């Protein structure tokens, strides 16, 4: 429904959402969560089969977006470890490899992944959620932060590797669940009694991946970050955007 515009850039690919649901057998305890929880079981195998992914961590769960044309490879890659379902008319229907065997691509020869620069600004972030019925109470402030408060982004220059701060505000509304990532200073502008966070109220630091827009054709970027963090049992939120990737730890 959005009118074409010279100011709006649209990626060519159509993306599908994968939601990884735990079967409840995972041992309890202090385990890494977020993107690192699925680093070895989902993200690394897809990277090995040269599948490019977009990650979207939310307050509630993590979503992996894959290109529609890569779906046969994705299902063949993950079918050994996971029961895979597709949604049809609101119902979950089992998917087998036979359903998507036509057009399955063989893995390409392994190539050395590009090592992208990372930046770690000093900004501290909060990961929050809001009850849907209280959203109208913060709507004006939300609109102001989303559209009016931020200065235009600076062009990436020679000095951009040493960012003292970064402008980042992520709002997602998925199946009625709201997730917000904002810096601690911006959080002070909102009514504190309406923003829900973890009981510890811990703050997060960001690692931004990429010195220039990453594009969507390269694979393994998420795996390069997620696997070492998973090895160290470090929880992380991961948010891919049109230009860069962001890991919150």
TrEMBL record:
<dbReference type="InterPro" id="IPR051719">
    <property type="entry name" value="CASTOR_mTORC1"/>
</dbReference>
<feature type="domain" description="CASTOR ACT">
    <location>
        <begin position="11"/>
        <end position="78"/>
    </location>
</feature>
<dbReference type="GO" id="GO:0005829">
    <property type="term" value="C:cytosol"/>
</dbReference>
<keyword id="KW-0597">Phosphoprotein</keyword>
<comment type="function">
    <text>Functions as an intracellular arginine sensor within the amino acid-sensing branch of the TORC1 signaling pathway. As a homodimer or a heterodimer with CASTOR2, binds and inhibits the GATOR subcomplex GATOR2 and thereby mTORC1. Binding of arginine to CASTOR1 allosterically disrupts the interaction of CASTOR1-containing dimers with GATOR2 which can in turn activate mTORC1 and the TORC1 signaling pathway.</text>
</comment>
<feature type="domain" description="CASTOR ACT">
    <location>
        <begin position="201"/>
        <end position="249"/>
    </location>
</feature>
<keyword id="KW-0832">Ubl conjugation</keyword>
<protein>
    <recommendedName>
        <fullName>Cytosolic arginine sensor for mTORC1 subunit 1</fullName>
    </recommendedName>
</protein>
<dbReference type="InterPro" id="IPR026249">
    <property type="entry name" value="CASTOR_fam"/>
</dbReference>
<dbReference type="InterPro" id="IPR045865">
    <property type="entry name" value="ACT-like_dom_sf"/>
</dbReference>
<dbReference type="InterPro" id="IPR049479">
    <property type="entry name" value="CASTOR1_ACT-like"/>
</dbReference>
<dbReference type="InterPro" id="IPR027795">
    <property type="entry name" value="CASTOR_ACT_dom"/>
</dbReference>
<dbReference type="GO" id="GO:1904262">
    <property type="term" value="P:negative regulation of TORC1 signaling"/>
</dbReference>
<dbReference type="Pfam" id="PF21389">
    <property type="entry name" value="CASTOR1_ACT-like"/>
</dbReference>
<feature type="domain" description="Cytosolic arginine sensor for mTORC1 subunit 1/2 ACT-like">
    <location>
        <begin position="116"/>
        <end position="199"/>
    </location>
</feature>
<dbReference type="GO" id="GO:0042802">
    <property type="term" value="F:identical protein binding"/>
</dbReference>
<comment type="subunit">
    <text>Forms homodimers and heterodimers with CASTOR2. Interacts with the GATOR2 complex which is composed of MIOS, SEC13, SEH1L, WDR24 and WDR59; the interaction is negatively regulated by arginine. Interacts with TM4SF5; the interaction is positively regulated by leucine and is negatively regulated by arginine.</text>
</comment>
<comment type="similarity">
    <text>Belongs to the GATS family.</text>
</comment>
<dbReference type="GO" id="GO:0034618">
    <property type="term" value="F:arginine binding"/>
</dbReference>
<keyword id="KW-0963">Cytoplasm</keyword>
<dbReference type="Pfam" id="PF13840">
    <property type="entry name" value="ACT_7"/>
</dbReference>
